[in-house]
Amino acid sequence: MKRDLADIAAQTYDLLVIGGGIYGVCVAWDAAQRGLRVAMVERGEFGAATSANSLKTLHGGLRYLQEANLPRMRLMIRERRAWLRIAPDLTRPLPFLLPTGGKLSRHRLLLTAALLINDLVSWDRNRGVRPEWHLPHGRILSRADCFAHLPGLPDSRVSGGALWYDAQILDTEKLLRAILQAAITHGARAVNQTAVTGFIQQGRRVQGAIITDRLNGQSHEVQASLVVNCAGAWSDGLLALVDGRSATPTPTFHLSTAINLVTRQIVPNVAVGLPSRWQGRARILFTAPWQDCSLIGTWHAPYTGTTPAYQVDEATLDACLAEVNAAYPPAQLTRADVRQVHAGYLPMQPGPADAVRLVRESVIYDHARTDQLDGLISVIGVKYTTARHTAERAVDLALRKLGRTAVPCQTAHTPIAHVSPARPIDEEYPDAITY
What we know:
The strands form two sheets. Strands 3, 4, 5, 6, 11, 12, 13, 14, 15, 16 and 19 form an eleven-stranded mixed β-sheet that branches. Strands 1, 2, 7, 8, 9, 10, 17 and 18 form an eight-stranded mixed β-sheet that branches. It contains eleven helices and 19 strands. The chain folds into two domains: 5-51 and 173-253 and 361-417, FAD/NAD(P)-binding domain, CATH 3.50.50; 113-168 and 254-357, D-Amino Acid Oxidase, subunit A, domain 2 (D-Amino Acid Oxidase, Chain A, domain 2, 2-Layer Sandwich). A hairpin with a 7-residue loop joins strand 15 (338-349) and strand 16. It is of the alpha+beta class.
């Protein structure tokens, strides 16, 4: 991939995508595949910010049964299937275990019904997926089988376990780069270490952006019919550069921090929802096996800083480890067991200063409607699982705004080119906090 900002600026594009995380590269891939002229700029390294902070799970939406939100559940099932189908070298089935007993929401009979409904709603979950990656039916485990996976689990009320299957991304960085390469193969131009420092406007219409090379300080203008903001946690700072937004615009990204730990492996072979009762709060901690490690999370907290520059402090890390050890004493995790800390941002709903209510669904803003500014779209993503689908919706909107003939999206069925096996953990995320 040749990095030439002057050459990129010498052309005019249908779409200029800002942000090279999973949502940005999916938009660029989909748009390029549908015949649009696409350029994408990323202020750092592709996929190195929030997209690098993930439990790497492709969710089938079982949690949405609690809300009777079957449409949302169906979406998650379809998207999990799409990733298994288009990226079989970088995904795999992953069994999930939740101990039954205790709270009503974990009652054995209730979860038996939930697994049955899940199997019925996901009746087509394996369509088009290679046979060795097919997801089996869920089932209820006996108490003995549950404790075979979780010896020493400190809960005398455990009656057994609910076991179901989702999927795991083996290497999120390689998946993102494979999508980026697919976008480039279809004609997209992409450049990293490039910041957007202003917008090109004619009245209340955005017609491109001013990009600045962070390596040499040189600036260029990139003309585009539409600009798609996929900057994630940097979205509001980016939108502040647009002339003509209202004096008190609605924030597109209320920041919350999200922390996941990468530790020595504490539970092999199966992902587990660990019931946690910590400092007066009851919740579920998730741990998933990954390579020879465990991924554990997620811890959320409101972020009140003015710029996304969060660093995990020592007290926070100690509190995370203490909660894991209280939920599952056999883990006995110490600071020496922490391989990496993945810290990123997720969108949250405004609310009390000490509470985090995450945004549950991705949002696409057409600023012609929200700010009377044409030529600008913002995409606020919430999950890796739904990045492809959100990109499809964004490109559908772009085609309508460009007055182009509707071209069907093909990304749910187009295999991503074969990539090499996942790298060892210490090579995968060079910008993560390492201990």
